[in-house]
Each structure stands twice: as C-alpha cells, then as structure tokens.
Write a structure and sequence with these properties.
The structure holds 2 protein chains of 2 kinds.
Chain A (H helix, E strand, L loop, with lengths): L1 H17 L13 E3 L5 E3 L8 E5 L5 H8 L2 H10 L4 E6 L11 H11 L5 E4 L4 H6 L3 E2 L1 E5 L5 E5 L18 H10 L14 E2 L3
Parallel strand pairs in A: 3-4, 4-5
Antiparallel strand pairs in A: 1-2, 3-7, 6-9, 7-8
Chain B lengths: L1 H6 L3 E5 L24 H5 L2 H18 L4 H13 L10 H8 L4 E7 L9 E10 L4 E8 L6 E5 L3 E3 L8 E5 L2 E7 L1 E10 L8 E13 L3 E13 L11 H7 L9
Antiparallel strand pairs in B: 1-2, 2-3, 3-9, 4-8, 4-10, 5-10, 6-9, 7-8, 10-11
The chains are: A alpha/beta, B alpha+beta.
Chain lengths: 199, 255
C-alpha cells in the first residue's frame, strides 16, 4: 500500500511537471518579474494588449544569430511601434551563461541596440518553468484576450547561421501580423530550437 | 602511396568558435582557388610541409580569437602533429584542444585517392571533441543543431550525410542526441559520368555545426578540395578503416 502511494505521488509530481507547458488557446500563466530597474512588471499590467515573451540568453549562438543580424531588434521595433508589448525574459541562473547583474544587462541591451518594452529577470527560473521555456530563443505570443496564441521557434531555420535569417519563415511575425489584423494565427505551435535555457 | 595521394586533400584547422574562414558563398565554383593545397615542395616534405600550411591557417583562426601570434603558431603546428593521436579518450590532443580553448576540430579526407567517371567516393568529415564537449545528431533533440554540410563543385554531386549511432545527453531543455570525443560524418560524392580521367574536380565543402558543454559554441569550417579522376580502380585510403572505427562506425567495416 505504501509502495502504491509512493508511485502515485511520483506520478502526480511527473504529471505536474508535464503540465508545466501552457496550452495554446488557454490563458497565459500570470507572472510578475523585476525589470532592469527592479520595478515589478506583471503580465496583468498589459491586459488587453498583445504581448510577446522572448526567452533570451545574449551569449547563446542562436540568440546571437538574431541579434547579430539585427533581426530581433527589427521585430521588436516593428511590433512595439504597433502597440505590441515585447518582454525579453532571461531565466539564466546566477553563475550560468546569460546571467548578468542589472547594470551589465543595461550595457548589453544598449550595445545590442535592442528595443524590447522591458527586459525581465527570472533568475530562479520560476516563470520560465511555468511557461515550459526550453530554449533560447523560445517565443510566446499572448493575444488581447490574455490567451496564448503562439509558442515555439522564432522561425523555421533551426541553425545558428545568421545568413539564413533573411530567407527564413518567421512564425512570430506571422502570428503578430495575424493578431493585429484580427485574424487567427496561421501556425500556433512549432518546435522551438536553440540552446537550452540555463536554469 | 594511397596515404600520400590523400595527403594533398587533408587539412586540419581549429574549429568551434564560429568564425567564417572565408566567404565561400561569393566564390564562383568554377574559379575556386585551392589556396590550402600544399605546394609541390610541401607535398614532397610530407607532413612537415603540410603541417606548416595548416599551422598557418590555424594561426590565422586563433589570432582572430585574440591569441598571441607565436602561441597560435605553436598550437596550430602542435595540433596538426597530434592529428593521428586524437579521437581516442584521454589523449593529449583532447587536452591540448581544451587548453587552447578550442573545444573541437574538424578534418576532412577522401576515402580513396581518386574516383572513376560516374563513380562514388566518400568524403569523411571527422569532428574531434575535447573532453566534456559534444556535437549533435540529426535531429538533435530538445536543443542543439544538426550538422549542416554544403557541397559545391562542377562535375560532382553529393548524397545524404550519414552519421553513426548517437548517444543521448541530458540538459535543462530535455534530451539531446549526439557524439562525444570523435565522430566521422560520411558524405557520398559522385563524379559526373563525363568527368575526364587525368583531371581534378574542384569540390568546396562547408560544415556548420554546434558543440556544447554547459554552453554552446558554433563551428564553421570550409575546405577547398580536389578530387582526382582516374580510369583505373581508385586506391582506398589506408587510414579510412581507422577513421571509421574511431568515428563511431562498427569496427571500421564498410557498411
């Protein structure tokens, strides 16, 4: 009986872990994280707006591909100008690649000329795990109703080669264009690619 | 003899830092130069001469990484000399690569010294990895990147890249598939039926790959090669069986 209870407990734990990935079409998990000035930013603050969550690690080759080519900055600029909220989230644990103190983060963001609405620090990985963020880059798009409209890769080129950016099919741009036009998102889920998130 | 024939088509340069060695896309294949082919003197000098050429290339690459020139030359040359000793666990070459902060190197060789018109030869791409590093299979799993090989050349046609059985790795993203220490990637290359015996077909190969430990580094290598066309039976390269064995293929036997 004790054995069965143990197995059941283990199963429940595993089930909880498996459920960590939010379902597309369902409400996006609520969160609140500090930005680079230490000001808490909650998802609820942006209710009624389209929100992009971009899991990032500036030293990951796949992230470098999109910042080095200017692709990520261009997406950030193009969509924030249309009222989209773009949150770059870093779940790298202290001591792991991509984890910086806020001052260093500000320097790196300026250097990259990145223009997200905010960079949010998730050093204990709570929000990353709640979203099942697996890779950098790993992107989530939340619609005006607060439901998850897209999750997955930034585009269809699972390499670190920056010269492929121009010819790749960008799923995030497609999803955002559709949402802003009041249309259904053409591809709601893809397999993300990149480095592992450094929890 | 076959070894010597192949020596002209054997290069070694440090990898794992994602530097573009030369912009191959802009090089028209028909005019592909063969800057890295050793001179006649170097061929006569065998490994020593070739080592110098390769050392120079290695030096250039390492210098880009901000290393001191003299050290780069030494490491490049030393790295070359240890080529035969790499790909086995706990060998000096692996330690050297780690000390030089080069987690991997990639080397290529043909399986035979020549090809007949319409015939097939294999290009072996051997990636050697320092202790603790791995590269990826295709598909790579929950993170990482499958190796990408691009082959261009007039009168040649490349088949599908073949990889040996892979191992499994765990990282925070989940499970990935790949290779430690040494992997031989095999690419069948067919010469055109119209290829003329006595000529050499220019073949340009580019490999993009990724190596990871706790962090990941991109690797890009490019080689300008020549493939001699002969009417007689091509001589197999003497070291091919060893490359197969060390690179994860069963006991060096042909498939």
């Amino acid at each position: 009986m004790k054995g069965i209870r143990m197995i059941l407990a283990a199963w429940l734990v595993l089930a909880a872990v498996a459920q960590a990935t939010p379902e597309t079409g369902k409400p996006a998990p609520a969160f609140s994280l500090p930005d680079l000035d230490g000001v808490p930013r909650a998802l609820a603050d942006y209710a009624g707006r389209v929100v992009v969550l971009e899991w990032t690690n500036y030293d990951c080759p796949f992230v470098k591909k999109h910042y080095g080519s200017g692709n990520m900055q261009a997406l950030q600029r193009r969509f924030t100008e249309q009222g989209v909220v773009w949150l770059s989230i870093c779940s790298s644990a202290p001591g792991k690649q991509g984890h910086f103190a806020p001052a260093e983060w500000k320097r790196r963001v300026a250097e990259a000329q990145a223009v997200p609405t905010a960079v949010l620090l998730d050093a204990d990985g709570t929000v990353g795990r709640a979203y099942g963020a697996r890779n950098t880059p790993h992107l989530f798009v939340i619609g005006v109703d607060g439901s998850l409209a897209y999750q997955g890769a930034i585009d269809d080129d699972p390499t670190w080669s920056p010269e492929n950016v121009a010819t790749a099919r960008n799923y995030v741009a497609e999803a955002l264009d559709a949402l802003l036009a009041g249309q259904p998102v053409p591809t709601a889920e893809t397999k993300p690619y990149g480095c592992s998130v450094k929890y | 003899m076959s070894n010597r024939e192949n020596a002209g088509f054997y290069t070694r340069v440090p990898a794992g830092s994602g530097r573009l060695i030369r912009p191959l896309r802009e090089t028209p294949v028909g005019q592909a130069r063969h800057a890295r082919r050793p001179s006649r003197a170097a061929q006569r000098g065998g490994f020593l001469g070739l080592g110098a050429v390769v050392g120079a290339v290695a030096c250039g690459v390492l210098r880009e990484a901000g290393m001191k020139t003299s050290l780069s030359i030494a490491l490049g040359a030393l790295g070359f000399c240890l080529a035969g000793a790499a790909c086995r666990p706990a060998q000096p070459a692996a330690r050297l690569a780690a000390e030089a902060e080069e987690p991997s190197t990639a080397v290529v060789a043909w399986s035979a010294g020549s090809v007949q018109p319409g015939g097939v030869v294999e290009l072996g791409i051997r990636v050697e990895l320092a202790e603790g590093w791995h590269t990826y299979a295709d598909p790579p799993g929950d993170s990482g990147m499958a190796p990408m090989v691009r082959v261009t050349g007039e009168g040649v046609e490349a088949g599908r890249l073949q990889l040996p059985p892979h191992a499994e790795f765990r990282d925070p993203a989940g499970v990935t598939f790949g290779f430690e220490r040494c992997v031989l990637m095999r690419l069948p290359v067919r010469a055109a039926a119209e290829a003329k015996p006595g000529t050499r077909l220019p073949v340009t190969v580019r490999l993009d790959y990724l190596v990871c430990r706790d962090v990941c580094l991109p690797g890009r290598q490019a080689w300008d090669l020549e493939l001699p066309v002969t009417s007689t039976d091509p001589r197999p390269w003497a070291e091919w069986a060893r490359w197969l064995r060390e690179g994860g293929w069963d006991d060096g036997r042909e498939k």
